Amino acid sequence: MTAAPRSASAPSRRPRPIVLVLLVGIAAVVATADQVVKARVVAALPEDVPIHVIGDLLIFRRVANPGAAFSLATGATWIFSIIAVAVVVFLVWFARRIRSVAWGVLFGLLLGGTLGNLIDRLTRPPGFGVGHVVDFILVPWLLPAIFNLADTAIVTSMCLFVLLTLLGRGIDGSRRTGKAAD
Q1: Residue range 83-103, pLDDT digits in tens
Q2: What pLDDT, on a 0 to 100 scale, did the predictor assign at position 182?
Q3: R_g over Cα of the chain
């Protein structure tokens, strides 16, 4: 018995090695850069003292964030650790289904950013699973929040998610056309 030939338009279900390498590479670069920069920030910047880098456009102000964005849910730090572990496990499991380079970049940014903040929650004071995330970038004219490189990667991945979805690009490399993409 032979397998029926696959049509030329049907995408393969096998993972593309280049996409996996790209995803893992981006995740590693983002998580590493995030941790290296945070270590330098902790060593060089006093906590909660604003350093005006570009006037009031860009300010570095180191804070230890026990919560989520905008310091929400500060008493639930351990929940964010569990959610981050679940996201990392899901992304690692799901990665083999991604065939599109653009989606590989998206998931690499998301994985790297999630790992960067998870490392803080697991290794920084006050303790394992409840560590505070180091935030230091303040752009008051744009956002009322202080954030870090990991947060930037996560937000960039979500912007890319919206763009790819609007363009009808599938994770398998397919592209919706016509009314299905509207």
Answers
A1: 999 999 999 999 989 999 999
A2: 46
A3: 20
Catalytic residues: 135, 151
On whether the CB atoms of residues 77 and 66 are closer than 8 A, the answer is yes
Contact 17, 95 (CB under 8 A): no
Sorted by sequence, the CB contacts under 8 Å of residue 49 that are 6+ apart come out as 61, 62
Could you write out the three-class secondary structure of the chain?
Answer: CCCCCCCCCCCCCCCCHHHHHHHHHHHHHHHHHHHHHHHHHHHHCCECCCEEEECCCEEEEEEEECCCHHHCCHHHHHHHHHHHHHHHHHHHHHHHHCCCHHHHHHHHHHHHHHHHHHHHHHHCCCCCCCCCEEEEEECCCCCCCEECHHHHHHHHHHHHHHHHHHHCECCCCCECCHHHHC
pLDDT > 90? residue 168: yes
Which pLDDT does position 181 carry in this prediction? 47
Which pLDDT does position 91 carry in this prediction?
93
Tokens 């995740």 appear where?
Answer: 27
Backbone angles phi, psi at 27, to 5 degrees: -60, -45
Average pLDDT over residues 122-126: 94
